[in-house]
Amino acid sequence: MARRPSVFVRPLSMDEGRKLARITRTAKNPVRMRRAIVVLMSAQGQTVRDITSLLQVSDDYVRDVIHAFNERGFDALNPKPGGGRPKKIGEQLREWICLIARTSPTNWGITAFSTWSLAKLRDHLLDEGIVAELSRETLRRILHAGGVSWQTTTTWKASTDPDFIPKMRRVLGLYDHPPDDGRVVCVDEFGPLNLLPRKGKAWRPRRKPRRQRATYTRTAGVMHMLAALDLATGKMFYRIRDRKRWIEFLDLLKALRARWPAEKLYLICDNFSPHRHARVREWCAANEVELVFLPTYGSWLNWIEAEFAALRYFALNGTDHRSHDEQNAAIAAYVRWRNARAQPKVNFAADSPIRTWTSYPVKAA
């Protein structure tokens, strides 16, 4: 009987060879390691007979591993699950259990409590005859496999603005297509700026966090930051004041007007009462400044909000400033660093579902 022709693994790239070598050194599963060794030896030119004599396996095993790797790649190295005992609870019943877990006990006439625990849900399933026997651990695994997890209830605040969609589209239109006759600027207030130890994160030796004082008194009052984000350059301009009335807001607008005297300004702002003050509106109308108000509960549409989040994270979190001068200096240093690296702001929420809204959603997603 003629000897069966030897088979070899397909040509491997350098990356595939390195990956195979790494698997042969680090794989914890012996089946995966042995298969990787077979493929690596074949890739190095060793015949099936050479591999079988070195690994003490059969010819058919070596050939099957090589053929499988040629067809499926690295997936062929993974052992197939044994399957274990057949499941006592079928897939349809498991889906039904997950569906019940997502309901409230009150939906089943149970008024004594408003949420399920594993024990209460298990007792309910047994009492209703949905399952004959079920342990809490098995129930936990069924819910985990079905993508049902224990989560905190969240809230959302719906906008009552009847013009939400038109206002949102007006703002997005200015972001997407800045007018040729002017400049789009986002304005808002940040604060209050208190003097207190702030939690933050830092690289530290394991189990040796940076410590902050836990007791403090606030005797220096608070301050407020009024800021503007120029979308054309990506730079941020600001001033820090004791208060944030319409007077301080109007001073900021006058500073912006002086910075760009020859351009019309389109100012994106929220519905904070100083922004809508009659004196502010009167001045804007006389000085080529258009106030573009966000829809109510739509502050996330203001591009400057993300800049405030970064300012808080990098300049304030983890600090314990003892004076406003010290804290203001830290903010100034961050803004200088940021402006030196600023880029024009484009592509606001380009893939967001809000781009397809034709009406305000009636409930949270």
Automatic annotation (TrEMBL):
Residues 183-324 form the Tc1-like transposase DDE domain. This is IS630 family transposase. It comes from Pseudonocardia alaniniphila. It holds the Pfam family DDE_3. Gene3D superfamilies: Ribonuclease H-like superfamily/Ribonuclease H. It comes from the Bacteria.
